[in-house]
Write a structure and sequence with these properties.
Length: 117
């Protein structure tokens, strides 16, 4: 079985945006981590934005990548900001007790359109 995954790196208004597309699992984490660390090393400041709007699956190894990126960003004085996470991804992060490690860009959680707080 072949897993489809790609990473798109862009600079928008001086901010680094990494977009993970497809399935982030044990077969794709190396690509994700390599590309993301390249983006972190580019010298920009401010949050590292990880757009997960097109992430169709995130296994435990994918969660580990997100944690590794958070730690690497923190070493550089930067935060990780998740953009467009699915409700399912946030539930997994919460169930693992990892919600304090990530910031979620306001108004971008997918799958909660009909929920009110």
């Amino acid at each position: 079985m072949t897993t489809t995954f790609s990473v798109d790196l862009t600079q928008t208004n001086g901010q680094t945006v990494i977009r993970f597309i497809g399935e982030l699992d044990i077969t794709t984490v190396e690509t994700a981590e390599t590309q993301a660390h390249h983006a972190l090393a580019n010298g920009h400041t401010g949050p590292l934005i990880i757009d997960v709007s097109e992430l169709t699956f995130c296994g435990s190894s994918g969660i580990q990548v997100l944690l590794n990126l958070e730690a690497a960003a923190a070493q550089r004085g930067r935060d990780v900001l998740l953009r467009n996470p699915s409700r399912a991804l946030l539930l997994v992060i919460d169930a693992l007790g990892l919600e304090s490690y990530f910031h979620v860009e306001a108004e971008t959680v997918r799958g909660c359109e009909n929920e009110r707080t």
